[in-house]
Every structure is written in C-alpha cells, then in structure tokens.
Amino acid sequence: MESGGDVIAELVADHRELEDLFSQIELQPVDHPRRRVLADRLTAELVRHTVAEELHLYPAVRKHVPHGAAMADKELADHARAERMLKALEDLSVNDPRFNDTIAKLKFDVASHVREEEHELFPKLAATLPPETLDELGRLVRRARETAPTRPHPLLPNTPPTNRLLIPGAGLVDRVRDLLRATPSS
Fold it and tell me: What's the average model confidence in pLDDT over 114-126?
C-alpha cells in the first residue's frame, strides 16, 4: 500500500486495496489454497493499516476533531474486533467452514468501518486540520506501515503511549517470522 498523499488519501488508498483483496479471495473456489495466501496478505495489509491509524490518525482525531475522543474510541473498538477475527483466521484451513464465515464477517465489519471513516471521520478531520498537517500525518502513516506488524496481536495495546513502544518490536518479530517462512529449508 503506497500512495504518497495526505493522510486521507493514504488511508482511502488502503481501503481500496483491502476491498480488492476481499474480492480476490471471493473469486477463488471455496477450498482453493490461494484463498489462504490471499487471506494472509489481507491480514498483513489490514494489520499495517490499523496500526498506522492507531499510531497517528486517532490521536489527531482525539486532539482536533470535536467529539473526537468518542469517534476514536469507537474506531479502536472496531479494530480490536477485526484483530480478534484475524487471529482466529490465522489458524483456520481453507477447508474449515469457519474460514469462509470469518472472511465474510470480517469483510462486513471492515466495509462498515471504512464507510464510517470515509463519510464521517475523514471529512471532519479535513475540516479541522490544515493541508500541511494532513500531509505530515500522511508521511507518518506511510512510515508506520513500514515498521508495523504483519500479524494480529490482539493483546498489544492500541493507544499511545504504550503502543508506540511495543508495536515496532512486534513488527520486527513478524517480519523475521515472515522472512523465515518464505525461506526454503535446506
């Protein structure tokens, strides 16, 4: 996921990529192994996206948007629910009926979350912050995605300051695990 715009453009581009991944999963036959590959990619992208929002978007919303704390809390609760589903999905085979049920529920929840952000939260943020601040938040979101975890960690905190301390370490561990998983055994 790479756009190069302000925070809203960055996150909207993420949303479109997530929608595309859900569509790609749905296009595969129900028990096809490619569904697992796509679900793992969806998981990595969704985790990186949510971490970037938790680190930079929601603190800005709390600080600058009227009634922003309540909005941010609701979005964080959505993230926690999605992360629990991603964690459950991690251990499911494509042959397990719960795999398809979990993907369907996750898609529904993510679509609802995206609608709320794009139709309510983003316009309010754009109305309260100058373009240069939105651009700086976009840069921070891009950087956060680079170091964010690629797997769900539902027990990690999702609010500052603790998440700022623990997320980079979890991201490093995940990237090492991903690298080892991709390296063929000798």
Answer: 97
Cα angle for residues 62, 67, 72 (degrees, 5° grid): 45
- Rounded CA-CA distance 61/34 in Å is 38
Closest among 57, 180, 177 to 117, alpha carbons compared:
57
Provide Rg for the chain, Cα atoms.
17
- CB < 8 Å & 24+ apart, contacts of 125-128: 125/7, 125/8, 125/57, 125/60, 125/61, 125/64, 125/65, 126/8, 128/64, 128/65, 128/66
CA end-to-end span of the chain, whole Å? Answer: 32
Enter the pTM of the model. Answer: 0.81
Q: How far is CA 27 from CA 31, 97, 110, in A?
A: 11, 17, 18
Closest CA to 92 of 31, 148, 50, 46: 31
The mean pLDDT value for 118-145 works out to 96
Q: 69: which 2 tokens?
A: 């704390």
Alpha-carbon distance of 130 to 102, in angstroms, equals 39
